[in-house]
């Protein structure tokens, strides 16, 4: 499976694509991935830069994962939706499918998660795209767990545990595989806790 990731440091931090590849490999799914990332970039900036559109048009990708700048869907959901539509048109024209990487609220502004969830969820429904509900899973995990910390010290970016939890959600939502019991150790992490939480929460969300 070939996946193109378009986003910023919320995707590149802790090598999220590599974590997903490792989990998928443990379930017998081979993933090739490419990442187009720029610090703090919005989807509109990626559209204007052209590099992502060139990669999509070159073909060969099964799925293109879109990650918007972390607070833009809260501040300007209409702008996000417009960029999502433009990307989706290019992705469909290339014979691939669109997936939205629903991100999380900053640690000191948990009340903004609903706006993120609504923006990404609405785009996914409108465009018939896949939704990877990472932010929603983070929200439910944080409601019941103090440790491990999902946010990095800046209260915005993901700590390693946050990226690993995100990778488990990708495995479930994008690849329809259960992460529970995968023995790919990650130094310093209780991966079993995060795997189980991802599976339990995603199962709740699906019902």
TrEMBL record:
- Taxonomy, superkingdom: Bacteria
Q: Known Gene3D superfamilies for this protein?
A: SGNH hydrolase
InterPro entries under this entry?
SGNH_hydro_sf (IPR036514)
Q: What is this protein called?
A: SGNH/GDSL hydrolase family protein
Instruction: Name the species this protein comes from.
Output: Kribbella kalugense
